[in-house]
Design brief:
Layout lengths: L3 H4 L17 H37 L10 H40 L13 H51 L6 H29 L7 E4 H19 L2 E6 L4 E4 L1 H17 L6 E8 L3 E8 L6 H5 L17 H11 L3 E6 L5 E8 L3
Parallel strand pairs: 2-4
Antiparallel strand pairs: 1-3, 4-5, 5-7, 6-7
Helix pairs in contact: 2-3, 3-4, 4-5, 5-9, 6-7, 7-9
Length: about 375
């Protein structure tokens, strides 16, 4: 069985080994190229004949050629030149039409869902550029299709866990395995909260990536907002034996959506706490200038390798020992981008991690 690349090689007559069906798309495409070649050949012949007539007229007028001389030798020379030019034209035309037809055939396969299709890069420079762009496009389509499939699998996995717990707990309550008391119902309620948060996170992520997230901006002191988030997480930090503090500008006011920025800070600081061992420190530093406002969250955890840092903002990506859903930093990345800012990670194994959020001052 031939590979898609073999189907697109120059000289391959038909993709399936059978003649194209009359009236089909491939038949119409081949007919178009044939007609274009004939029309171009006619134009070349007419142009060459006109050029010969013009040269002959000029030569006789200026006495370069005696008008009484027979034209037959000159016509034969012109015919030979025309034949040579047509041969060169057809070779050039084939060098263009063959790779173009290969790209068009490959486009049909991509339209049918075959994202592994690639074409050989050959021919004139513009055609090579087209083939390279086509291969880049199909590679991206293949990568996006794989990401879509992985996303569906990850979503199904993350939803299955709380649903399984809820189903098992309710069945146990109905069968009398678990007592029907407030403690049992509280466990079920907590799992529904987990499920609700996961659904809200997925919705927020989808809206931010689609550029459809609505921001309710107002002048907000980000330093005060960071202190509020730290205060809300201070009990968790204390229980983990982690020191957490806010440093930097006492006031850093910009126009932002305070609900979304709070969500960003909560996700980033919670992530830092979950990766910092007991006795470690998490520092939130706020800096404000005329151009931008930045919030840096630094922990003294185990840090990340370069490969892990490169995937830190990917959906459902979890580092070693992570217990979350893998959406927190991806959501933070989308919300920061919706504000026109940027978020970066700097980390080194054994030396901790710093995540820096930058927002333009005129946000």
């Amino acid at each position: 069985m031939r590979s898609p690349r073999e189907d697109c090689r120059p000289g391959t007559r038909w993709r399936t080994g059978m003649p194209p069906t009359r009236g089909g798309e491939e038949w119409k495409r081949r007919r178009f190229f044939r007609r274009a070649a004939v029309a171009a050949a006619v134009v070349v012949l007419l142009g060459l004949w006109g050029l010969f007539a013009l040269v002959w007229t000029a030569a006789t007028r200026f006495g370069v050629v005696d008008a009484a001389l027979p034209r037959v030798p000159f016509i034969l020379v012109a015919a030979w030149f025309a034949g040579f030019a047509l041969l060169a034209f057809f070779r050039i035309g084939r060098g263009i039409s063959v790779p173009l037809r290969a790209v068009m055939d490959a486009a049909d396969r991509v339209a049918g869902g075959d994202y592994t299709t690639r074409v050989d890069v050959h021919g004139p420079r513009p055609v090579r550029a087209l083939a390279s762009a086509f291969n880049t496009m199909t590679a991206r389509l293949a990568r996006h299709d794989e990401q879509r499939r992985n996303l569906m699998a990850d979503v199904a996995h993350e939803l299955r866990t709380p649903l399984t717990v809820i189903q098992g707990r309710v069945e146990g309550l109905l069968d009398g395995v678990y007592p029907r008391d407030d403690a049992g119902l509280e466990l079920v309620l907590e799992e529904t909260r987990v499920l609700s948060r996961l659904i809200d996170d997925l919705r927020t992520l989808a809206l931010s990536e689609a550029g459809a997230l609505t921001l309710e901006k107002e002048a907000t002191d980000v330093a005060a907002l960071a202190r509020d988030v730290v205060d809300a997480l201070s009990s968790e930090a204390t229980n983990r034996g982690i020191s957490i503090q806010v440093t930097g500008d006492a006031r850093a006011t910009v126009a932002i959506d305070p609900v979304r920025i709070r969500q960003i800070l909560t996700n980033v600081i919670s992530n830092a706490l979950s990766h910092t061992p007991a006795g470690g420190t998490v520092t939130v530093a706020v800096a404000h200038s005329a151009a931008a406002l930045s919030v840096s969250v630094t922990d003294t955890g185990a840090g990340m390798s370069a490969d892990q840092a490169a995937h830190a903002f990917d959906r459902f990506y979890k580092g070693p020992g992570s217990r979350g859903s893998g959406l927190g930093l991806a959501i933070a990345h989308g919300l920061v981008a919706a504000h026109g800012g940027g978020i970066d990670v700097a980390s080194e194994l054994g030396r901790g991690t710093t995540i820096t959020i930058t927002l333009p001052s005129d946000t």
